[in-house]
Amino acid sequence: MTALAAEILEALGRRRATGAVVSAADAARAAVAAADEWGIERALLADDPVLEELGVGAALGGDGREVLRWPEGRGSGWRELLGLEGPELTLGVTAPALGVAERGTLVLETGPGHGRSIDVVSMYHLAVLPASRIRATLAEALSEAYAGGRAPSAVSLVSAPSRTSDIEKISTLGAHGAKGLHLLVVEDR
After folding, report:
1. CA 134, CA 96: separation in Å to the nearest integer?
2. Can you say whether the dihedral through the CA atoms of 178, 22, 30, 85 is positive or negative?
3. Total structural domains in the chain?
4. Are residues 186 and 54 in contact, defined by beta-carbon separation less than 8 angstroms?
5. Which pLDDT tens digits describe the chain residue by residue (189 residues)?
6. Virtual CA dihedral for 151, 140, 49, 94, nearest 10 degrees?
7. How many degrees, rounded to 5, is the angle at CA 66 between CA 172 and CA 27?
8. Cα 57 to Cα 91: distance, rounded to the nearest angstrom
């Protein structure tokens, strides 16, 4: 395990998220294990080459779980994706553009294959991050990612499961997004 991988997992752990370092060969099995632990019935996957190469979607669908791919999965309707119809135990699966070790932050970019709501509309969020995409600081990550003026229409910085303390100062998980976050750091081949 690299020092940056250990640091990002430690930072996420301080915020009630979980994670593990896995080999490329074990990534799909680890994704299924996380989905099984949460009792996931439906998964919404970003259309990302990393997820495809690792076989994450096929593995999640292999045991009877419904798998929708972005953006094609949107055709079945937003009510289903939001959990208003069909299974409530849903999983958003993303491949972050970058990860930030010091804060345990995932940089999610909106693009044709990755909608801005994948990590928000699902009850749980599974992020699959190649170790080579981890940077030490947010400044380093953002300056590298957007140095040439290339910027997506939206960027989400995710550092933990969604939580709020708006109501009577009681901390509530999942108020504005996923109530659970699990990061799989995939070792470089």
Report:
1. 10
2. positive
3. 1
4. yes
5. 699 999 999 999 998 899 999 999 999 999 999 999 999 998 989 999 999 999 999 999 998 898 988 765 555 555 665 556 677 788 999 999 999 999 999 999 888 777 777 777 788 999 999 999 999 999 999 998 888 777 788 888 888 765 555 566 655 554 556 678 999 999 987
6. -90
7. 75
8. 11
CATH code of the domain covering residue 98 = 3.40.50.10420
> Distance between CA 127 and CA 56 in Å, rounded?
11
Question: For residue 8, which amino acid is it?
Answer: I
DSSP label at residue 187: P
Query: Which residue in the block uniquely carries the two structure tokens 């947010």?
Result: 138
* DSSP-assigned states of every residue in 109-146: E-BTTB-TTHHHHSSEEEEEEEGGGEESSHHHHHHHHT
pTM check: above 0.70: yes
| 3-state SS string for 51-108 | HHHHCHHHHHHCCCCEEEECCHHHHHCHHHHCCCCCCCCEEEEECCCEEECCCCEEEE
User: What domain range is 108 assigned to?
Assistant: 3-186
Specify the amino acid at residue 13: G
Q: First-to-last CA distance in the chain?
A: 13
Q: Which residues pair with 42 in a beta bridge?
A: 66, 90
